[in-house]
Amino acid sequence: MGRLKTRAAKDRLLRRVRRQRLKYITILPSLITILNGVCGFAAIVLAGKSMTARVGSFSPLAVAGYMILLAMFADMLDGRLARMSHNTSSFGGQLDSLCDIISFGVAPAFLMLKMLEYKLTGFMDANPALVNFLRRFIWLTAATYVCCSAIRLARFNVENEQDESAHMSFIGLPSPAAAGVIVSLIIFHQDKLPEFAAKSSFGYTVCENTIMYTLPFVTLGLAVLMVSRIRYPHVLNVYLRGKKPLAHFVWLLLAIGVIIWNLQAALVLIFSGFAISAFAKWSYYRTLRWLLPARHEVQTTQATE
Predict the structure, then answer these.
(1) Residue 58 forms beta bridges with which residues?
(2) At what angle do helices 246-261 and 263-304 cross, to 10 degrees?
(3) DSSP string, 227-251
(4) Which of 222, 227, 244, 281 lies at a C-alpha separation of 20 to 30 Å from 275?
(5) CB-count exposure of residue 250 (10 Å: 0-12, 13-18, 19+)
(6) Residue pLDDT, tens place only, 135-154
(7) Helix or strand or coil: residue 1?
(8) Which letter, b or e, does each residue of 127-143 get, where b requires 16 or more Cβ atoms within 10 Å of its Cβ?
(9) What are the angstrom distances between the C-alpha of 266 and each of 30, 94, 124?
(10) pLDDT tens, 184-198?
């Protein structure tokens, strides 16, 4: 009888929880989160325009890239406001992830897909079979990136803690940083690279071919890094908050100087450097851990002989 009463009480509690409805939300952080999703949607719409169209003096892909950067700023701001006002909630976290999959999952993959498809149209007459194969490969690359970003965000929701002290690092490359690598390359290609054509046609050709031919493989690499267990630092909490060594201040001034000198090139360097740095550090320590036992075994063998 006791077990039956306990089970009946649990069933009543579950029914009561299911009947509960969300009554209150935090307005300002939620609005900023929605802005994140709207910017991602706007980027997709702009990327769908013809490559010959112009948005002011910019190409549609460049403006779409800047919209994703604006989405990154909104994504950084909404969580910060919620934690500062002590209004974090499960609703805000789920809404943030839903908007992130649009802005940092679907939108960057679609931008990459449209830019490379436009490039392939110039090779259609030369070898249609090869172009069709490459289009399928590029589509598969974009789909893989979207799937990995969704897995990354779902895993973050499960493992995330709302306490600010726990936000010192990320497991796997954050989806905004992965999107930043793709978007910065596209912005540089669309917004800055045409200036090289007037100065050096050879330099323009080399830079354009490098970006175009490596972008699908870069996208695949970013997808793998997002679902990896490599630890990436939270830049704001680790390097900018609290008292830091003078070297951090010098590096910050250097980064600001590069941004002022050339914004497009600075975006490529900052996002690519962040994505590569943790992977290089992980590879170094992994190799070192593999070499040290081997050296120890050799020294032990020599000592016994």
Answers:
(1) 55
(2) 140
(3) HS--EEE-HIIIIISS---HHHHHH
(4) 244
(5) exposed
(6) 899 999 999 999 999 999 99
(7) coil
(8) eeeebeebeeebeebbe
(9) 31, 32, 34
(10) 999 998 888 877 767
